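Components:
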Amino acid sequence: MIPAAFAYHRPETVDETVALLSELGDEATVLAGGQSLLPMMKLRLAAPEAVIDIGRVPDLRFVREGKGHLVIGALTRHHDLERDPLVGKRCPLLGEVAKKVGDPQIRHRGTFGGTLAHGDPAADLPAVAVALDATIVVVGPQGRREIPASALYRSYFETSIAADELIVEVRIPFTEGAGGYEKFTRQAQDWATVGVLAARCGGTIRVALVSMGHTTLRAGAVELALAGGASIDEAAALAAVGTAPVEDLRAGVEYREHLCRVLTRRALEAASA
Amino acid sequence: MRIQITVNGETRSHDVEPRTLLVHHLRDSMGLNGTNVGCDTSSCGACTVLLDGLSVKSCTVLAVQADGCEVVTIEGLESAEGFHPLQEAFRASHALQCGFCTPGMVMASVSLLADEPHPDEARIRRGIEGNLCRCTGYHNIVRAVRAASGPR
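Structure:
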């Protein structure tokens, strides 16, 4: 399988990328690591007229410390997150989740900005951004803009990033407490049938759900119950409240809801350890 | 588009269509058909090569993305002294049946051992998670990687 023909652009700066995005509009798609985009193009589920390859744009692959948060460049690869000492110290859960993405080959190419921008509700790393209230920094023709992770996703593969905007970095509050990511798959390297991330942030527990709706979700009912003094079992029983899982080849709705409750309990136990 | 890639130590330039996948470029333009195309959907890992030292699935990389980079394929492992230690270990441990997954398995294992020279069995299994063996010959593959990694 070979992608449909496209015009290939390889800008060398963020400004040049944004200018290209403004000029080409919806016809263009940004290529970062390509681990989601290229398979879709090969299956002709995506056939962009133009591909803007940002792989050579410098200064987008880094992890540094800000005031109370990590700043992660959009082109930072999952493999980088797995082994970065700052991530290990300031947000170890991010490194742990990165280790569970796809397989080694995919982690060697896939990027943090890429998976966030792709908007697949079955992706692992967006759960970290959503649970920890990350801030996504994008650059467009009007300059920089910050998008809270809670406002990033609209529906399947649909984000609030405009067609002429590019993610440049992501800020994630330091989260040094315990946490857990429970990912249920049919086989190695599969997408999550369901995934649940729980993280202890200061005095509160945050929970995000993967493959439980059209977007990555927060388990609001679970968080509220825990804040009100509910036990882990009581809170986990509410995990599927407000979700909208679909039936697909991996699982039906009821099975997903069941998995969600079980995995939430396990993730909460890990976050309480 | 004109691209220049160093494959197995040899730098060569080619004109490629931007949609050309790295695996097809290696096989069809460079004549290196040791790298197999298996599932073609980024699942099986048969097309695994090293790109700037790290394993990638070459069916999920555009040739233009590898412009200016170094690629090592299964053909590049053997040296004047003979087989690469992993190739030798695969041979000695009978870590192949039909052999189709073998080039990808070996390249994934090269990347794993470069990253982690002495993995335990669980780590080896996780390290080759991106590669499928249709003959289900995993036990001997894991033994081969252990043998090649040597004592701690």
